[in-house]
Design brief:
The complex is a heterodimer of chains A (391) and B (507). Chain A starts with a helix and ends with a helix. With 391 residues, chain A is mainly α. Chain A is built from 16 helices and no strands. Chain B folds into 3 domains: 237 residues, Rossmann fold; 181 residues, P-loop containing nucleotide triphosphate hydrolases (Rossmann fold); 76 residues, no CATH class. Helix content of chain B is 33%, strand content 27%. In chain B, a hairpin with a 2-residue loop joins strand 4 and strand 5. In chain B, helix 8 packs across helix 17. The chains are: A mainly alpha (391), B alpha/beta (507). The interface between A and B is large, with 36 and 45 residues. Chain A: Belongs to the binding-protein-dependent transport system permease family. AraH/RbsC subfamily.
């Protein structure tokens, strides 16, 4: 009996392989899609699409949608939706611009107040969803309208400008080349160190450690990718601060999703809410926290947005929620909950930004941009359900 | 009188299981035939064959209706013939009015426009037939369950049903509602409509049937005239089977009372008029296996949900653990006190299908692997591996999706989940439903191992042999009341069934 199980453990298992294949397939499709988009646009723009300057731009454009998508993916994993994100970002940005321009608050205070306000708006949405049992679609649809209304009210429908030069740091500055290299190398070193420690710990618990050769190859590839990413951006002006923020929050989000109790519970709630409740999970509290976290990330995105625009405007962030939702779905999140990865959502945001950027460079009329983006979204989800049905 | 319906030697298999093994029934015009049998004996399967839910060709044997062999392919076929089934779960649209429900799918139209005046007139006639004095414009959702049942019957009559199948129609009804329904069945019989009546309430069965047919384990045990049978006869015929399965019974020590529940009352979450648990009190000793028996709907699961803090409707009652009164508001509270429950419906309330086996197992005990909310994945996998080994969950590795395991192994994984919190009291609701004999045996063995280690187990089960084979003591519930508290010494299935069907005063 015991022998049998150990044999089973060693054998490659079809279902796992199938799952890996499926995961890799999704990743592969995304990579192919990105390469295809890149090649197409660089051909159409005679190479200027892939210039360091445009790549830098592209990543900067990804930052806002990417950060929104990180918050959104948690909401979607928990089986809910947040349609208020765009208006909320506009409102928080507008508020921050008013504090900065009209009242001349010092930057740190503006940031703290904006982040606090983001948290509160998230809690507001979450409270209605979790404790008042109003469907999130409705709660956040109401928020979408109300937040936009408040924004227009407090700005009197005018653009609040110009923002202070300190505020511009968040969205417009670049890291010095050396600093970003140091951060990159430091981060890699920390990652390898953590992995080593993990292996040692696994050994101490008598758990079989994964073979080292594939892991080494993976590590080398990761190192090369990160360093060349930094060098590429350094070739223009350096790593833009918003991109650094995006990277930080991607790491943090991934950590929360895969390494914390909170993350595990969100997946469980989205996977089977009844079973989660009976397993002793406080479903309401966790849902509230998910919305609060989303609000916090929206506040970050809002600060980047007004810093980049140099102004708070009543129409800022219009339909940004749809970009964020599309990014999550393209990145493999399931609208029925329980499924989704942070990194996938960020890659999804990158794909959306690539399309935006490329089509703008080619002077594609705005109406075509909408049509293409809509088509891509539909295609991505259809591919997902088509592969699921085959299984 | 002429034969209206004959079902001859019906055999229906699910894989290798013969759910129906040559059952024959016959029914005359204006006759009421009752079907009796334990849960899972094949009554409902037989009715599904009759009504075309299992299409002709899916089973052996023949159905003769009004002297002709019929081959129904679906429900529409049998409805056209005048056979209507009324399921235990009502199939009315609550948001629509009585009138709209009565004519749903068969609206009276003129050029595609509904003729409300005509439907209103017809609806009134139908409602009169079933003695329901409500306006046809009332929303079905505003009616009580009993009235809804009558609407359902009126709907069947609107299709000129000659044969009405009632599958446990009185289970959700109050006594006065039941009386109205029984009177209606009498009236229908007088007007020439035949009925097949399925119920666990033997007094009802005896009162309204002409004949009673008893089915056990898919076999036809016998059909007799109702007036020559006593309730005892029916029970003996229903349960009289030999015990074939083996129960790995082991001696274990039973200690002092660890848990007490007093005066527990619970009301239906949809209809606060209906009591699901009525003043139930019991206690549980350390190292004891307490079986809870009773028919489906007797309030067993509801009572357990009150203990585990997850009952959805209104309830109150007193819970004492080791003599200390406790307030359990949700399952987290219960788990913190060392009370765990493996739920009845594995798919709906147990597994999280898209998560891995390992993650499913550690779900309730995540706190143990956390420091400041960050999980120690290595310690987690190590404990999961131990748990999988201990409970012999047959999975290639802990990282595959739990949905790909067999039912028995899923059940073991869910059991592992709740054992990980080291419970003192373990509630198992139908722990062996839908799993194979081998896995059953392993779960029984595990249960004895657990009680030997001082854990107390409450097992809710509908399988009498299991209750008798495993429990130290058996509580029997009937319509929300605890009717019996029987030590498992010289206890027989008949004694439990007597209690479960009895209509005396609560013990």
């Amino acid at each position: 009996m015991i022998e049998q199980t150990s044999e089973l453990e060693k054998k490659p298992v079809p279902t796992l392989v199938g799952r890996l294949k499926n995961m890799n397939l999704k990743l592969l499709v995304m990579v192919v899609a990105i390469i295809f988009i890149m090649l197409l646009f660089s051909f159409m723009t005679e190479g200027s699409y892939l210039s360091p300057r445009n790549i830098s731009n592209l990543f900067r454009q990804t930052a806002i949608t990417g950060i929104l998508a990180i918050g959104m993916v948690f909401v979607i994993i928990s089986g809910e939706i947040d349609l208020s994100v765009g208006s909320m970002m506009g409102l928080l940005g507008g508020g921050a611009a008013i504090l900065d321009v009209w009242f001349g608050f010092p930057l740190p205070l503006t940031i703290v107040l904006t982040l606090g306000a983001g948290l509160l708006l998230g809690l507001w949405n979450g409270w209605w969803v979790a404790y008042r049992k109003v469907p999130s679609f409705i709660v956040t649809l109401a928020g979408m309208l109300a937040f936009r209304g408040i924004l227009i009210g407090i700005t009197d429908g005018t653009t609040v400008a110009p923002t202070s030069s300190e505020l511009a740091i968040i969205g417009q500055s670049y890291l010095p080349n050396m600093v970003s290299l140091m951060i990159g190398i430091g981060g890699l070193a920390a990652y390898f160190g953590w992995q080593k420690k993990h292996d040692l710990k696994q050994k101490s618990y008598n758990i079989e450690v994964a073979p080292s050769t594939p892991k080494l190859i993976k590590s080398v590839l990761l190192g090369v990718a990160i360093l060349s990413f930094i060098l590429l951006l350094n070739d223009y002006r350096g790593v833009p601060t918003p991109v650094l923020l995006l990277c930080l929050f991607t790491l943090l989000g991934t950590f929360i999703a895969s390494k914390t109790r909170f993350g595990r519970r969100i997946y469980a709630i989205g996977g089977n809410i009844d079973a989660a409740r009976l397993s002793g999970i406080n479903v309401d509290k966790n849902k509230l926290a998910v919305f609060a976290m989303n609000g916090f990330l929206v506040a970050i995105a809002a600060l980047i947005l007004i810093s980049r625009l140099g102004a708070g405007s009543p129409s800022a962030g219009n339909i940004a929620e749809l970009d964020a939702i599309a990014a999550c779905v393209i990145g493999g999140a399931s609208m029925s909950g329980g499924v989704g990865i942070v990194f996938g959502a960020v890659v999804g945001a990158f794909i959306m930004a690539s399309l935006d950027n490329g089509m703008s460079m080619m002077d594609v009329p705005t109406f075509w941009q909408y049509i293409v983006k809509g088509g891509i979204l539909l295609l991505a989800v259809w591919m997902d359900s088509a592969t699921k049905q085959k299984r | 009188m002429t034969k209206l319906l004959e079902m001859r030697q019906i055999v229906k298999c699910f894989g290798s299981v013969r759910a129906l093994d040559g059952v024959s029934i016959s029914l005359e015009e204006g006759e009421v035939l009752s079907l009796c049998g334990e849960n899972g004996s094949g009554k409902s399967t037989l009715m599904k064959v009759l009504c075309g839910i299992y299409p002709s060709g899916d089973y052996e044997g023949e159905i003769i209706y009004k002297g002709q062999v019929i081959h129904p392919k679906n429900i529409a076929d049998t409805e056209a013939l005048g056979i209507a089934i009324i399921h235990q779960e009502l199939t009315l649209v609550k948001e629509l009015s009585v009138l709209e429900n009565l004519f749903l799918g068969a609206e009276l139209c003129q050029y595609g426009v509904m003729n409300y005046a005509l439907m209103h007139y017809e609806a009134k006639l139908l409602l009169e037939k079933v003695n329901l004095s409500v306006s046809p414009n009332t929303l079905v959702g505003d009616l009580g369950v009993g009235q809804q049942q009558l609407v359902e019957i009126a709907k069947a009559l609107s299709k000129n049903a000659k044969l009405l199948v009632l599958d446990e129609p009185t289970a959700p009804l109050t006594e006065s509602e039941t009386e109205i329904l029984l009177k209606l069945v009498e009236a229908l019989r007088a007007s020439g409509v035949s009925c097949i009546y399925i119920s666990h309430k033997l007094s009802e069965v005896k009162a309204i049937s002409d004949h009673i047919c008893i089915i056990r384990d898919g076999k036809h045990i016998g059909t007799r005239a109702a007036d020559v049978m006593s309730t005892d006869d029916i029970i003996t015929m229903m349960v009289g089977r030999e015990m074939k399965q083996l129960f790995p019974r082991e001696d274990h020590e039973i200690g002092d009372v660890i848990l007490e529940m007093k005066n527990v009352n619970a009301w239906d979450k949809a209809n606060s008029q209906i009591k699901k648990v009525n003043n139930a009190s019991f206690n549980l000793r350390k190292g004891e296996i307490l079986g809870i028996s009773g028919l489906v709907g007797a309030g067993r699961t509801e009572l357990m949900e009150c203990l585990y803090g997850c009952y959805q409707g209104k309830y109150h009652g007193e819970i004492r653990l080791n003599g200390q009164p406790q307030s359990i508001k949700n399952s987290r509270d219960a788990l913190n006190l060392g009370i765990a429950m493996v739920p009845e419906d594995r798919k709906k309330n147990g597994i999280i299908p898209i998560m891995a086996v390992g993650q499913n197992i550690s779900l309730s005990a995540i706190d143990q692997f956390c420091q400041f909310g960050v999980m120690d994945n290595v310690r987690e996998s190590s404990d999961i591996a131990k748990s999988i080994k201990k409970l012999t969950v047959k999975t290639p590795n802990p990282d595959i999706s739990i949905a790909s395991l067999s039912g028995g192994n899923q059940q073991k994984a869910i059991l592992a989940r709740f054992l990980m919190i080291n419970p003192k009291v373990l509630i198992l609701d139908e722990p062996t439903r839908g799993i194979d004999v081998g896995a059953k045996y392993e779960i029984y063995k595990l249960m004895f191992q657990l009680v030997k280690n001082g854990i107390s187990i409450i097992m809710v089960s509908s399988e009498l042999p299991e209750v008798l084979g495993i429990s130290d003591r058996v509580l029997v519930m009937h319509e929300g009341n605890i009717m019996g508290n029987l030590p498992n010494q010289n206890l027989t299935q008949e004694m439990i069934m007597d209690c479960a069907l009895a209509e005396g005063v609560p013990a």
